[in-house]
Amino acid sequence: MPDFFTFQRIRKRRQQQGVANRRLSRPPKWLHPLNVEREYQRHLLRYANAISSAVRRIIIPELPQLVDAVAADRPDRADVFNWAIEVEDLVESTVIALEPDFDAAIALVEPFAYKVSEFNQAQWSKIMRSVLGVDVFVSEPWLEPVVASWRRENVKLIKNISDKALDDIEGSVQRGLRSGQRHEELAKTIQKSTGYTKVRSKIIARDQISKLNGNLTHLRQQDLGIQSYQWQTSLDERVRPSHASNEGEEFNWNDSPDTGHPGEDVLCRCTASPVFASSTGLATL
Question: Is 219 exposed, middle or buried (0-12, 13-18, 19+ CB in 10 A)?
Answer without folding.
Answer: middle
